[in-house]
Amino acid sequence: MFKSQSGKVEIGPGLWVLMVIGLLVGIYFGVNYAKKNGLLDKATKAVAPSNTKADNGPKLSKEDKKDVIKVGVVTWGGYAGGQYFNEGFKASKNSRFYTEYGILVEFVVMDDFDASRAAWKADEVNVMWFTADAFPIEASSFTDYQPEVFFQSDWSRGGDAIVVRKGLNTVSDLRGKKVSVAYGTPSNTFLLWMLEANNMTKNDVVMVSVNSAVDAATMFKSGQVDAAVVWSPDDEDCVKNIAGSKILISTKKATYIIADVFYAKKSYIDENEDKLVKLTEGWMRGAAEINSSEENLNKAAQILSDGLGQDYAYCLKAIKNTRLCTFGDNKGFFQINGCNSCVTGEQLYTKMSKIYTDFGLIKGTVPPWRTVSNTKILRKINLAGVEHESEGMQVFTKASKIQEEAPAIASKSVSIVFRSGSFSLTDDNKNIIDRDVVPGLKAFGAVRIRVEGNTDDVGDRTMNVQLSRKRAASAIDYLVETHNFDRNRFIAIGNGPDKPVASNDTPDGKAMNRRTEFQFLD
Q1: What is the pTM (predicted TM-score) of this model?
Q2: Which of 258, 301, 376, 488 could cross-link with 186 by S-S, CB 3.0 to 4.6 Å?
Q3: How far is CA 508 from CA 174, 199, 456, 501, 503, in A?
């Protein structure tokens, strides 16, 4: 060290060399100390993504890559069971699919719908997602490829929603209003179900067709429509951006309408049945583990965050907006266990086949469910334990006075004609309830139901009020005793002649007033 002519202290060349050598020696001993005491491992673990193990496993050979099951997915939380069990999106020999089943699985994210279907047709992906409700459209156009559904991954539980502008509070308020919706998608299905629950049809609203739920949200936020069917988290974004707007209803209440399923070509299933059994079993084990552990849920959210390139909080909410389906759920969905209370894939598929044909989205013949579903995969699986059981029906607490008087989101009016002075259900009454009421009550599984009995104005008012309440109670008794619905879910109201919907001066008007309403409460 010496002073220059300017008076500044400067370091000579020899001292520089000594200082550099000293620094390197310090780093060397510091790293060794950190390794010896585990400090380096701890630091590495703190920043490593949860799927590093799977993605950085042994390098796959060309032969390995030929055996990879490629699964086409979109940015959605309902597929977390498989991605969690795979410990990432990439095929890896560190994946549990490989270490426990000897198969390699890759999740290919394809949010472009047309491109994803082209890839499936070309065998660039082997297994593809869709929803059971919209699958009739897919199945009718893919008959040459013989698609077969073999597994249900999830139910939407908040991922789909209807947002409305200020002043719209019920489904009835949508009459004549503009609603943006993506045709032939789960959004379309959700809207049509809601209209039906209010005795309305597609002709009662002005549907504005868009390419996707994202586009529907954009139209709503720009003020071009009165309502929109959107995905989460766009529902919250719409409400935040449009003053006075709100979420009318979401699949948090309509719990059994949107079911994600996976399908493959019949030829692929026949040639790879053993692999698909392992894929399905591992996937359902992953779903069960996530459902039963907060720690596993958090791990799954991190895996999605890494694989989708999305924020962790977004991915966590995306998973929570679904019911990840277990082995028990799948047995009910595919009618393997004879579950009478389950909403099945066949029910959704058959109902929407007719609706989408009438809607004009299906040209030609829709193949029956039995020819587009494959239960051989599930029948070769046997997972035991409470974590693999079906979720069962929601349990309700007894309704409070406020809940009893809450405004209805929608009202399903059904004509149940009783014998004069009687409140006993006839076989015809029961058939009407089975056909026109039960499917809706199953689909909207988290909605409380108010059953209101109504009469015409013939006879004593007080007696009519009492009689109408007994008739409402009879309908509830039948639903509870025959279909195993929770009694606390229902509220019996007798209006007597006080809420007519037509004039009591004509026979037709009287008949319209002798009605029973099943009202969907928030």
Answers
A1: 0.84
A2: 258
A3: 27, 18, 11, 11, 8
pLDDT of residue 46: 31
498, 502, 504, 508 alpha-carbon torsion, rounded to 10°? -140
Tens digit of each residue's pLDDT (9 = 90 or more) over 170-210: 999 999 999 999 999 999 999 999 999 999 999 999 999 99
Pick the CATH number of 52-157+257-388 from 3.40.50.300, 3.40.190.10, 3.40.140.100, 1.10.20.10: 3.40.190.10
Distance of CA 227 to the CA centre of its chain: 21
> Which residue is it, tokens 């009618």?
335
Distance CA 263, CA 250 (A): 26
Instruction: Classify domain 161-250 by CATH number.
Output: 3.40.190.10
Q: Which fold has domain 401-521?
A: 60s Ribosomal Protein L30; Chain: A; (3.30.1330)
Kindly give the pairing relationship between strand 147-156 and strand 322-324.
antiparallel
Q: How confident is the model at residue 26 (pLDDT cuts 50, 70, 90)?
A: low
Residue 351 neighbours by CB under 8 Å, 6+ apart: 439
Q: Cα–Cα distance between 170 and 173 in angstroms, integer?
A: 5
